[in-house]
Amino acid sequence: MSKAPYHKDFKLGVLGGGQLGRMMQQEAVNLDIKLSCIDPNPNAPCAHLVPEFVVGDFNDEETVYNFGKDKDLITVEIEHVSIPALKRLQSEGVHVYPQPELLEIVQDKGLQKEFYKDKGIPTAEFRLIQSKEDLKDHVDFLPFAQKLRKGGYDGKGVQIMRTEADFEKAFDAPSVLEKFVPFEKELAVIAARNTKGETTEFPAVELEFDPEANLVELLFAPAEISAEIERIARNIAKQTIESFGFVGILAVELFVNPNGDVFVNEVAPRPHNSGHHTIEANITSQYAQHLRCILGLPLGDTALSTPAAMVNLLGEVGFSGPVKYEGLEDALAESGVYIHLYGKTDTHPFRKMGHVTITTNEADSARRLAHQIKDTIKVKSE
Asked: What domains are there in the chain, each with its CATH number?
């Protein structure tokens, strides 16, 4: 790097100023690393917390280039950013982690799927189409999920196709058709790789999704799986991050089918919802680990310190506008409850407004308390 991480003039730029950047900033303070963030929203969660906040479009090449050209290191808290700008910055000596050429693959679910196939990483059978019209050629592949190749996130950009009648609601854009496979659990493993090529993984967690929004609603750590499934899941995550040659943390989302086969759904090249609990529940948090990776520092111990669960605080259906939280005091009256509100001023249905981590002595009690907290805290509008 042009300057050491602890040099007083060292500049670390983050593309995105949302809740992931906010939690990254809290770890950066511990290392006396000063973050600069860019986000199009002047009221983004990082806006009033980081030493430098720039209002700008992280998808615009010139905006990102101008933001990054005086930085020593650039990282991301969202993957939908300008790849051309990052490649220019990298060519001029700015360190960019994760690497732009890898972000380019992750941005495109079709390229992701082809990458897994080429590298022998287990994933569901898939086909690629260019438009809605092409669906008629894939009736034999039903049932499947249609996923937009670009732009989808948090359950957006996915349509379920069970019969030909569903084709009328299809996206008319380049897409991946992913074959439905029966699965018993959805897991996630966060892998980490630093600039020296050292790798490690966090223990697998189990995810439960809101069926309407297709968003993670609950997370349980440890996952209720056998030691063999845990080993396989972590090995797949390690294989994936090493195949990419990725620097940073990579959230690897996985399915487990009734036969015990484990395969990759997709990845996120940044801190992820499936790692929020690590702030309280693991020896090293995902945010601290990400900074260690991109700064070339030794990787932290990923072990789980205590059984835990996490509840996503999502905007209630039927409420939009200035946010109002109900039930916080009742939740905080419980032992082992840690509330994280993201500082978003307005809510709308299913918007991620915060999360709650629950730590207990036993996994079963963490699960029970998570369901209780989910019913206690409500995100509404004034």
From this structure: 12-96 (3.40.50.20), 125-179 (3.30.1490.20), 185-381 (3.30.470.20)
